[in-house]
Amino acid sequence: MTRRWYRALSCVLLLVGCTRPVQSGGTPDVAALRASEAAWARALSAHDSAALERLLAPEFRLVVFSGEVTPRAQWLASLGRYRTDSIALFHIRPQVIGDSANVTLELYWKATWDGARARDNTGVLRDTWRRRAGRWVVVQRETLARRPGYAPSPSE
After folding, report:
1. Are 105 and 93 in contact (CB under 8 A)?
2. Options 3.40.50.150, 3.40.30.10, 3.10.450.50, 1.10.101.10; which CATH number does 22-148 get?
3. For 38-74, what is each residue's pLDDT tens digit?
4. Residues 20, 100: Cα–Cα separation, whole Å
5. How many C-alpha atoms does 91 have within 13 Å on its Cβ side?
6. In whole angstroms, what is the distance from residue 49 CA to residue 76 CA?
7. Where are the alpha helices (DSSP H) in the chain?
8. How confident is the model at residue 31 (pLDDT cuts 50, 70, 90)?
9. pLDDT at residue number 152
10. Neighbour tally for 66: CB within 10 Å
């Protein structure tokens, strides 16, 4: 029994020693991901297609909590029909593991669709990023939950 316990402990320690640490504090990668999330929100608001092209990986997809998947080209094409009235990011929490990262955040987005009010809600999102050629690109945005009509205060 004791030998098995030591073997199991040795395997765990070996695995822990072989993995790269998770970064969640004030590291340069965390700062870069927070800046990239802010740049994405600005590009969305300004309809800045050049910035969106730089930020979104070719295989980017949007996944809503119902499981519906929207590919990059379709999502980008639909953005021209939106006008962003206001957008804000809250509780941005990057978790970096090597050249991959998950960023959990709340996004408040008030927008109109084809001239009619379409969105005024907050969603809890998870963005999956990959480092490629020295810069971060987002490969997926997943909506984890929607909070219709909820607008967090800046102090939250």
Report:
1. yes
2. 3.10.450.50
3. 999 999 999 999 999 999 999 999 998 788 999 999 9
4. 11
5. 14
6. 8
7. 2-18, 28-46, 49-55, 72-79
8. very high
9. 53
10. 6
